[in-house]
Structure formats: C-alpha cells, structure tokens
Amino acid sequence: MSDRVEAAGGFWADVDGERALDRFRTLVNVVDDGIYQLDPDGRFVAVNDTIVELTGYAREELLGEHASLVLEDDDVDSIEREIRERLAGDDRDDALDFTVRTADDDVVLCELELHLLVEDGAFQGTIGVVRDVTERKQTERELRERERELQRKERRYEAVFEDPNILVGLIAPDGTVLDINRTAMEYIDADLDDVTGVPFWETPWWGAGGDVQDDVREWTERAAAGEYVDFEADLTRPDGEPYTISGYFRPVTDDDGEVVSIIVSDRDVTERKERERELELFRTLLDHSTDSVLVVDPETGRYLDANDTACERRGYSRAELLDLTIPDLAADIGGRDWDTLVEQLREEGQLTFNGQVQRKDGTTYPVEVNASHVELDREYVLSITRDVTESREYERRLEEAKSQLEAATEAGAVGTWEWRIPEDEMVVGGTFARTFGIEPDDAREGVPLDQFIEAIHEEDRDRVRAAIEAAVETGGEYEEEYRVWDADGDLRWVVARGHVECDEDGEPVRFPGALTDITDRKRAELELQRNKEQLETLFEVLPAGVVVAEPDGRIVEANDTAHEIWGGDVFDAESVEEYEQYPIRWADSGDPVSPEEMTLARVVDGEEVTDPDVFEIEAADGDRRIIEAEGMPVRGEDGEVTRGVITLSDVTDRVQAQRRLAQSERRYRTLVENFPNGAVGLFDEDLRYTAVGGQLFDRLDFEPEDRIGHSFTELHPPDLVEELEPHFRSALDDESSSFEIEYHGRHLHAHVLPVRDADDEVFAGMIVIQDVTERKEYERRLEESNERLEQFAYAASHDLQEPLRMVSSYLQLIESRYADELDEDGREFIEFAVDGAERMRDMIEGLLEYSRVETRGDPFEPVDLDDVLDDVRDDLQVKIAESDAEITADPLPTVEGDADQLRQVLQNLLDNAIEYSGDEPPRIDVEAERDGSLWEISVSDEGIGIDPDDADRVFQIFQRLHAQDEHEGTGIGLALCRRIVERHGGEIRVDAEPGEGSTFRFTLPAAE
C-alpha cells in the first residue's frame, strides 16, 4: 500500500505512508458512497467498505487488480474514453452510468462521479465515487409505467365521468367550467348552471377556505399549455373539517395538437393518506430498527416480510429473502426444529432464546430471538432477532483488555509521586516521568508541578488543576481521571489518586499519590461506546407493545399490543405531568411510581432504559397486570432527543407463576426439612419414598436421605408392614386415615392422606408423623398430679377444716366464759384470732373449689347468660342496695358451658367491681360482642382501677393488691375465674389504669 501511495505523487507527497493512509481512511469513513482509487494503469490502489460490500470481493482480492475485474467490457471502454477526453481538455463532470459485475455474478446498476489525479501535468490515476442506482432506475421505470397507466385511464374517461365515487369536470383552456359530473355537483352542493362559465378556481369545488385558488389557476394554465398535471390538495369543508383530495388535470387536444379542453378529476383520499402515513411511520420504525424483524408463515416456514436490517444482516435483497424459509437460514433455533418451535409458540404465545443465523455467504452469526405467535386474518410468526456478535466480541475484547491492564500494572504501569508543596518539587519515578514526557533524571531530582500539568490534554487540564487546588486547600483526598501526552507524542489515559499531608499548623507540606495507566481500558470503553452508538437505535428493545412520545412527553403512537396490555385506548397524555393518570406501582415493593419515574418520562429525558422496569398496573379494563418496560431515546443530528420509544411486555402470568412456585418450594422445603417434633414423607404408587424430612430424624439412628428411593416395605419389619400397609394403600385410593404406633422407643401419631395434582387427580401419598412421646409422658404425669390434687382437696376439706373449726370454737368459748375477766387487749386478741381462723377457712374452701374446677364441673350445655346474670343480681342484692350500685347490661347471648361455674365467674367480677368502686356509688356495665365462634363478655366499672403492671398478677392464686384492712378477700376469686374460663376454652384479661376503672373481658364458646 505504501508503494502505491508514494507513486500517487502530489496528493500524498507532504506526508509519509502511514499518515497518508490515515488521511485516506478518514476521508472514506465519512462518506456513505463507494470510493475507490485507481493507478494510471487502471489497477485498484484503495477501496472503502462500501466498494467491498457492493462488489462482493474482499479488499485483498481487489487491491492490485484491474478495474475490468468488476466492469463489463463496454463500460471499461466508455470510462477509458471519458478519461482521455477529460485529459484532452474537456472540463465536463457529468456522472457516468455503468454496470458492476459482483463476485456472485450479480449485476448492479451504478452511477460514477469520476475525478482525475494530475500532478505537474502528469496523470496519476483516478478517484471515483460510486452510487448504487438500482432502486432509482427501478423507480424511473415505475414512473414511466405509471404514466402509461394514467393514459389508459384517461381513455376510459367516459366511464369515469359517471363513476359515483369520482369527481370529474371539463373546463375550457381559459379555466371556465364547461361541465361537471353528477358526483361533483352533489359533492359541492351546486347545480351545473351555478358554475358553468365560472373560473374553475372560484367554484366551491376547492372547499370553504379557498386557500388553493392560485395553485388551481397554475395547474389550469399548465394543462392549457399541454401538460398533464397530477395534484394533491389539502382543503377545508364548510364545517371546518380538513380533508385531502388527489387528482389530475389532463389536456384534451384536437387533431392539430391544440388544447381544446381540460379534464379535471379527483377523489377524497383523506382516509387513504392517513393510512399511508400510519403505514409509512410503522415501516420506517421497523426499517430503522437495528433488530431484524421478520414475518414467517408457521405452516411452511417461508418468510412473508422482512425489514431492511434483516435483509442487510443476512446479505439478501428483500425479494431473495422472501423466496427462502426459516430452515434455509436458521442454523440453530434454540435446539428445536421448526415444527416443534411453532407448537410451543401456539401454546405459550411468545418465546425468547439464543440461536444462530446463516448469511448468504454461508457464514453464521449469533442472535437473540424473540418469537411471537400472532393471529390476524391468519396465523403468523413474528420473529425479532438481535445480532449479538458485537456484544460477545466486546466481552472478549474487554476480557483481553483486562488481562493486558493487569499485565501492564505488574510490569510497572503504576507509578508514584510526591509533590513537596512549599518547594513546588514533584519527585516521580522513571515510568511516571516518561508518561508525562519529562526526562526521568530531572523527575528524580524534582521538577515544578506545572511541567506535569502542561502534559495533560488541554480539555482536561483546568479540571485537574482545580481538583489539585481543592485537595490542597481542604487537606483532603484527590482522585482524577484524565489524558496526558507522553514522550512519544501519544495520548494516554491515566487515573491519579493521592492525599494532602499537613504540618502541625495545618499547612499543606506533602502531596503523595499514585498514577495508573488505564489507556487499554479506556480504549475498550470508547470502542464499546462507538459500537453502541452505531448499533442501538429506536427499536433496540422492541419485543411486543410499543409506545412513542415527543420530547415533552406527549404520546403520539402506541401499537395494538400496548393497547391490549393497558386494556383500551388510554394513551392520550399531552405531557409527562399527565402520566399520573396511569395507576402504576413498582412490582417488587408496591410503592406508587411518580410520573417522572416512569420509563417513558426517563427515556424522553435522554435516559436509555435497557434494564427492564417491572411495574404492576391497573389496566383500563379493570385487570391488574405486571409488565416489563424498556426504552431508548431517538436523537437527531444535534444529539437532542427527538422521540422516546418504550416497549412493554405483559409478564403477569410468568411473574405470578414464579412467585407461586418460589413460595410453594419454600413452604415445601421448610415443611419437609424442619417439620417440628415429627416427620413428613411422600411416597409414590409403588410405596417408594420420594421425599423425607423432619426433626424426628434427629432422635433416630438413620438419616432421612437413606429413605428416599426405597419402598416402605423394604425399610420396616414384616409385622409393621402388615399393620401399616393398608393405611398407605388407602391414601393412594383417595382416603385419609390416622393411627398410633410404637417405633424405635418413640410413641408416634401418624396421619396418611392423598396428594393431588393440578387436575385434582391422586398421584402420590403423604404420611405426617408427630412424636407424642413427651405428650404421653406429660399426660401420665398430669393424671398423677390430678390424683394428688384430689387427695390434697380431700385433706383440705376434712383434715384441715376440722382442727380449724376446733380452734375457732374454743376461741369463741373463751370469749363467752371469760369475757368479764379479760381486759380490752385480751378481747381484741381473741377477735383477731377468730377473724384469722374464719379467713383461713374461706381460703381453704376457695382452694378446694379451685382444685375441683376440672373434676367436679358439670357437662357443658347451652347456658343463657341473661338468666345467669339475673341469679347473680339476686345473690348480690344486699350488697348492691348497701352500695347503691347501678348495673346495666346488654342482652347477653347463649353460650356452651357449665351454668354453675359461669355464675361463679360473673358473681366474682360483679362483687369485685362493687368492692373496688372507690368513694362513688358503683357504676357497672356488662356487654357482649361476637368474635367468630366465640362471644367476648366484658364487665366494666368506674372504680379505683389497676396498675397495668399488675394486670396479669391479679389472676394468680393468693395474689392480692390491697391489705386486708383496706379490702377483704382471699386472693382466689380471679384465679378461680381464669381457671373456669380456660376450662371453657376461652381467655380472660383486664384493661385498666389507676383511678380510671377496670374492664374485665373473657371469651366463651357460642352455643350451636
């Protein structure tokens, strides 16, 4: 290459070969057309990528070859003749038409801009700019065909004149109306007499506004001059509604070629134009997507449509591609064949997988495929494939760059510095100095900081200087990333980290730090950025639903899938602020999403949302859905955001299924592995254990894993198998059963039940085992304790009360016989002794009653609490009257219980409420409230109250909160109430504050 450049003469003479090559590459990389250079003999010296793609030859195959390799013989002669004529002084620069013969022997029609290279009068070769004009030529042919078609249509004018859908008029060359058809008269709401002789541009034909009269006058004049004029006009109806018409002015000539009249015809194309605009927008979006978008027939696998990207990536024209099928080009479709993939799509609707696509030249490249099953007029498969070659190559290069960076660091790419601030001396090592283009010997002695600053790239210099000054001023840390020119004039990226050290007076004296060369890493990052800018466009993340918005947030477009996801036509927001009309929450937290946090708002603000946002939405049809949203801004040439595009995917079923599966797995795993005080086992129809676990195995001599895969009949002795097998079989027959056994010294309670699948069919059995050994032992001890308690109660009733009565009787006898001989103290002592004996007897009787709550109670039966409350009032009528107590009560329910014991509860609570009423007459309220299968009864008073810290102590036996001389009592009443309530399966508690009264609440089972 350098030889060719040197031979080129003056164009490259001021630079060396490599610099010339750089210039040439810069030139061709900013031009979209094909560019080549030929030497004086017509051999290729250089070609750009477009020439390589156009001809189908590799660059190495072209360089040094004569241009006739890709030209027809006639074109070679024509171009050589053109060069000779221009060298002879012909200054024309017309473009030349010629044909390129590709490596695949295809023919491409092209246009050539030829430029001669002449230095000091000597011909040095040519530079050519080549454009593929195949499509333009095709367009010209289509236009000619269209003209012929229009002429055929004109010959059918008589029939068209009567067409009820077309407006047709006949005007004179001067523009006055001669005739119009019935359709036109009805359309403009005028009679023929009203418009005959009137200049055509002044008739109602042209709408209410009359904005196109000048255009109509011009069209008429052109037609009168013999020109066929096509037109399209935007008009306004009388009601102010805009509409569009399309038609023509066709001159009618006599035999001498003179125009004698003009035929005018048009029709209302408003709806068609709107459809065309929508179709063009959609097609433009697809063709500008960097993803390949293809529509495939699911039955045959044949391509039905493809965007430009799909054709370019595969190396086919659209016509060629539509002659192929998926099996022709898909080297790998996720490990499936086409029929299997179609069946999965019909079942699941959408699939995402990695695969391989084959190009026209036989090479393959990796892709990520998002395939969807679509039903419109028929079945279609929509395939969106993303070329992941660049991303995988980048990952590889990034890994290489990382290795290189590590190697560079080990080889000394990290240097250290010390800046002695007062002396302004930077002392650094040799590697560091060379990085900044400074002599290593000078740097070891110390040089001013400015020498290093001057080596920093001018765009970074001020920023670095400011960061250094800030670190010195604050005495803090320093870290900056910037570019420097090294001793060889190459630009290097570095990151510098350091900190400022101060003396005892706080003055900065030293600034040590370290420098790391990160050039390789930054180049990799910049390469990634360039690739990203080239590859990512408007529809990089297009999977399903699409919403397009203006930079201010106004929504301008949403596809059908987006409407389906949102349950209707809801995309009418005029700005980001109006996004609050969409009820959206974050799927993971349930928190509302503000308008500015929404994906579309962030995208129009310039953010690229490639990591999907996951939202929960409330759709317009009332459904709640979970969606994933991704988005990309579309930027203009100035870098400003011109549109924002997001894609929406309904992942409700997937997320909910994942959640349910995860929850089910956690519950199942936790239950099996940590089943408390027992074990769980699953077994199949052959009685083999498929899962085993539980805390019971901590007490046995074998591990649960030893059971899995083995039959129950293999693991247990024959007598146990004979006893238990019917229970296992019954579970598989959709029946449940329970039993108790002794096993390895443990007493076990087991429950066997069937396990069903999603179709409610029994497919396995489960055995749930509880280790009740401790419970059995507790029950045995409880029975023994109850027997001892009964014995104590008997002793208290007979053995303790008898001597107590004797003590009380003799004390009373002493009092009656010797009362005259006793002084006042003696009589008082006897009174104390008698009172104590009486209280002792009350305590013994209360204790006896407390011990017999379980054993001497009556069977439960329906009890009307209103009747019980009436009996309690009768028993307490004297105390109620003496204290002037007022007792109010709601209607009380009927409960299941022991009437005598419930009477004791209410009597104790009312008696306490009266006793502890304080100085005011007691005010007591009894209420009832239903709570499921229980009734909650409350007894409230306005008395002296209870400290909340004592709320539990008052229910303990013999616990009193007041001295005997303040309030009488044994300390058993509330303990007795708790035991009675607990016997009834309920609970009792108190809510109270000192001086604010108390409310006792207890629950009882409702009567059936």
Summarize the structure.
The chain is of the alpha+beta class and 1008 residues long.
Describe the protein's architecture and organization.
Helix 27 (773-817) runs antiparallel to helix 28 (824-851) and helix 29 (865-875) packs across helix 31. Residues 1-15, 400-413, 534-542 and 962-967 have low confidence and may be disordered. The chain is of the alpha+beta class and 1008 residues long. A hairpin with a 2-residue loop joins strand 31 and strand 32. The termini are far apart. It has a six-stranded antiparallel sheet. The chain is elongated.
Give the topology.
Elements: H1 2-7, H2 17-29, E1 34-38, E2 44-47, H3 49-55, H4 59-62, H5 73-87, E3 96-101, E4 107-119, E5 122-132, H6 134-155, H7 157-161, E6 167-171, E7 177-180, H8 182-188, H9 192-195, H10 213-224, E8 229-236, E9 242-253, E10 259-268, H11 270-287, E11 292-296, E12 303-306, H12 308-314, H13 318-321, H14 326-329, E13 330-332, H15 338-348, E14 350-358, E15 364-375, E16 379-387, H16 389-413, E17 414-420, E18 425-428, H17 430-435, H18 440-445, H19 449-454, H20 458-474, E19 477-485, E20 491-499, E21 501-502, E22 508-517, H21 519-535, E23 545-549, E24 555-558, H22 560-566, E25 584-586, H23 599-604, E26 609-618, E27 624-635, E28 641-650, H24 652-674, E29 678-683, E30 689-693, H25 712-715, H26 718-732, E31 737-743, E32 746-756, E33 762-771, H27 773-817, H28 824-851, E34 861-864, H29 865-875, H30 877-883, E35 886-889, E36 894-897, H31 899-915, E37 923-931, E38 934-941, H32 973-983, E39 988-992, E40 998-1005
Parallel strand pairs: 35-37
Antiparallel strand pairs: 1-2, 1-5, 3-4, 4-5, 6-7, 6-10, 8-9, 9-10, 11-12, 11-16, 13-14, 14-15, 15-16, 17-18, 17-22, 19-20, 20-22, 21-22, 23-24, 23-28, 25-26, 26-27, 27-28, 29-30, 29-33, 31-32, 32-33, 34-36, 37-38, 38-40, 39-40
